[in-house]
Amino acid sequence: MASSIAVSFGMPSSSVAFSDSNFVSFSVVSSQSLPPAIRSWGKPISTYGTRRAVDVVAKAATVQIPSPSTHDQKPGHELLLFEALREGLEEEMDRDPRVCVVGEDVGHYGGSYKVTKGLAKKYGDLRVLDTPIAENSFTGMAIGAAMTGLRPVVEGMNMGFLLLAFNQISNNCGMLHYTSGGQFKIPTVIRGPGGVGRQLGAEHSQRLESYFQSIPGIQLVACSTPYNAKGLMKAAIRSDNPVVLFEHVLLYNLKERIPDEEYVLSLEEAEMVRPGRHITILTYSRMRYHVMQAAKTLVNKGYDPEVIDIRSLKPFDLYTIGNSVKKTHRVLIVEECMRTGGIGASLTAAINENFHDYLDAPIVCLSSQDVPTPYAGKLEEWTVVQPPQIVTAVEQLCQ
């Protein structure tokens, strides 16, 4: 049984629909047609100083994930993505008293995007610690706590704010295990929203995956569905390595049925979203849904694309990626990260180094433009890869 997913796309509210044997249906709907629980969640968020969050969800789309996924065949419960993150975090806090949460507004306010809602009341102010606006300080404090045996989860209200803690994340979090000769482990999770939102402005629309990917000693994963959000959250908390969990600001209200029983995903495995024969499309996070929208058009044109959500941005799952390249012999990478020095650039290099002999065409990478994200909605849309660009790229690669 395929389960329903709701996800924001930054597209007009006119209806678009598709179906094929692998990916069942897709439609764009206005926010007024969403259930009240979904419409009412995206409220302005008050926080320290002048920081505020804006309405995250103005429009949504309903997507059905592929029926072959094993977790769709089992009974379960429906959760929005931010609720799945919270459920995974809560399960780990129940399981391990060393797990704690640190960040701005994570306590009684429940987090800017409500990922930690209710946890302060359940676990107390020492395990769910509200902090001042001082990312470098509370991130450094969390790393020190990890050195003493705790397993802190650091919430960055926005990934862009964590640039203020880049020294702690790079020089301390990523390197202390090595520079201490293995005396210290740093089981820290750093998580929060990022990506191009809906007119959040340049400083709140940064795509910083490649910044963190370049840090030695750090693992990086990007969730794209409630199922993998929960599974990756639990895996990240249990890991003895520092992990950055990248969440997209427009996917928090994505809805899916997930299993009732406990599960933990691998931090180093990609997900096969749609098997195909003609071309391998590698993507992650929000672009997964732009790719799947393009896939319907491509199927109608006679193409059979294979879509892989790479999920693990460091290290890459070269086993899954390599097997796909050996089958299709063509690769298209679709990302929201910047073109210069982005995830796609690293992935292109890795594929060329390991699977060059299997390629029948040069690798093509579609990335966001190397500009600060404009505030104007139409200009913002132009900076990000759109489904028609994906269709055109596949047609050119498969000629």
From TrEMBL:
It catalyses: N(6)-[(R)-lipoyl]-L-lysyl-[protein] + pyruvate + H(+) = N(6)-[(R)-S(8)-acetyldihydrolipoyl]-L-lysyl-[protein] + CO2. It is found in: Plastid, Chloroplast. Tetramer of 2 alpha and 2 beta subunits. Its cofactor is thiamine diphosphate. This is pyruvate dehydrogenase (acetyl-transferring). Its EC number is 1.2.4.1. Keywords: Chloroplast, Metal-binding, Oxidoreductase, Plastid, Potassium, Pyruvate, Thiamine pyrophosphate, Transit peptide. The pyruvate dehydrogenase complex catalyzes the overall conversion of pyruvate to acetyl-CoA and CO(2). It contains multiple copies of three enzymatic components: pyruvate dehydrogenase (E1), dihydrolipoamide acetyltransferase (E2) and lipoamide dehydrogenase (E3). Residues 79-254 form the Transketolase-like pyrimidine-binding domain. GO terms for molecular function: metal ion binding; pyruvate dehydrogenase (acetyl-transferring) activity.
